[in-house]
Write a structure and sequence with these properties.
Blueprint lengths: L7 E6 L1 H4 L4 E2 L3 E2 L1 H13 L4 E4 L7 H14 L4 E5 L2 H4 L6 H17 L3 E5 L4 H4 L7 H18 L2 E3 L22 H14 L21 H24 L12 E6 L6
Parallel strand pairs: 1-4, 1-5, 5-6, 6-7
Antiparallel strand pairs: 2-3, 4-8
Helix pairs in contact: 2-8, 3-5, 5-7
Length: 261
């Protein structure tokens, strides 16, 4: 659609698209997809927006649970972002995960919708304890780019810019973007699809900050492991997910309220 004149935007994905890290379950989650919808509505006020994302979902679950409802909403623009939860599973196959994404790319683009996705930043630079999965991230990004190219899907290359791994772009759990991170992701997608008044300022580095010393950094790692890594591992061992008994926060296409836009 020229000049960002989209009428129906549907977001598919996991916790990042749901908005975890930007608000909370008491005041409500905003997140990059909501922020992107605001960019779209600024260019085209009649926009209607649905967000089908649910935290904890792996790519196969996103395809199985969200693709059908998304197609029924007949979007002319959709975002598909999933795979990070797969990265953290013991058995990970980048080609298989990207194959789940590609099925969604193919089905949505076949209807004439413009589809956009993201690459994954280097998690080893965000959380040093996550360095063992760096190779998985690089492999997944390679497959995402190839699948996107086959279907004309727009890729917002957040993985290529150092600002994406700045600690201030991430919430305390280091798994979800901070409000600033969500803001930059929304700007990245807006720029990738060529929305009016979008540009590459989202790639610009943040102001310099004083870095912690080695002892402070080591202490921060231990506190992070106790507060976030431990509980996450506990859920995995119990076969539980953060998304159990949760549903999409915005399952139907609705116009943005004045307070949102």
């Amino acid at each position: 659609m020229p000049n960002g004149e989209y009428l129906r935007y549907v977001a598919l994905g996991d916790s990042q698209t749901e908005g975890v890290g930007d608000g909370d379950d008491t005041v409500g989650l905003r997140g990059w997809a909501d922020r992107l919808a605001e960019h779209l509505a600024a260019a085209n006020p009649p926009l209607q927006y649905a967000n089908l994302a649910v935290r904890g979902r792996v790519a196969g679950q996103v395809r199985a649970e969200q693709l059908g409802p998304a197609l029924a909403l007949r979007p002319d623009f959709a975002t598909v972002v999933a795979g990070v939860n797969d990265l953290l599973r013991p058995r990970f196959d980048a080609a298989e995960v990207a194959g789940q994404l590609e099925e969604m790319f193919a089905a949505l683009t076949a209807t004439g919708a413009l589809v956009a996705t993201l690459t994954v930043p280097d998690v080893g630079k965000i959380a040093p304890l996550a360095r063992p999965v760096r190779a998985r991230v690089f492999a997944l990004n390679t497959h995402i780019r190839a699948a996107a190219a086959r279907h004309g899907v727009v890729v917002a290359e957040t993985a290529l810019h150092p600002v994406a791994t700045d600690p201030r772009m991430w919430s305390a759990d280091r798994l979800h973007a901070s409000p600033l991170g969500h803001e930059r992701i929304a700007a990245a997608v807006a720029h990738a699809i060529g929305l009016p008044r979008s540009d590459d300022t989202w790639t610009h580095p943040l102001p310099p900050q004083v870095l912690p010393g080695r002892l402070q950094a080591a202490g921060a790692e231990l506190r992070w492991a106790g507060a976030f890594l431990g509980p996450w591992l506990g859920r995995r061992l119990r076969g539980r997910s953060s998304g159990d008994d949760r549903f999409a926060k915005r399952p139907e296409l609705l116009p943005l309220l004045a307070t949102e836009a």
